[in-house]
Amino acid sequence: MPQQTIEELYEQALERKQNPQTGSYTDYLYQKGLDKILKKVGEESTEVILGAKNNNEELIYETSDLLFHLMVLLVEKGVSLDDIKDELGSRLGKKSLLHERADWRGDKKNEKDS
Predict the structure, then answer these.
(1) Residue 72 carries which DSSP code?
(2) In the chain, what are the domain boundaries?
(3) CA dist 108 to 102, 104, 113, Å?
(4) Does domain 6-80 have CATH number 1.10.3720.10?
(5) Helix, coil or strand: residue 12
(6) Which residues contact 13 (CB under 8 A, 6 or more apart)?
(7) Spatial separation of the C-alpha atoms in residues 40 and 56, rounded to whole Å
(8) First to last CA, the chain
(9) 16 near 30, Cβ under 8 Å?
(10) pLDDT per position as a tens digit, 26-63
(11) How many Å apart are CA 105 and CA 19, to the nearest integer?
(12) pLDDT at 19
């Protein structure tokens, strides 16, 4: 089975933005604009969660849809994969800020006594 990399998927989304193909789904998303793209990213995120609860086949399918829509979003916003890779690289070996917050575990450290 042929495979496609994230980079290829991004390049495909970029190509479709630069050279629209009338009638294509990708062109439809770009024509509708950011709000439509964001709505689709939200829908696909939910479907990934539901797919994960069901089975791996559904998880893989829905994750592929989400990745496609994320690439369209990145292109729409002018964010490159290198921007994402740089951000990920900047996090290597660093403790997440989330771990410094008490509420990430549900602790009520900052809650006032009643």
Answers:
(1) H
(2) 6-80
(3) 7, 10, 10
(4) no
(5) helix
(6) 26, 68, 71, 72, 74, 75
(7) 21
(8) 61
(9) yes
(10) 999 999 999 999 999 999 999 999 999 999 999 999 99
(11) 47
(12) 97
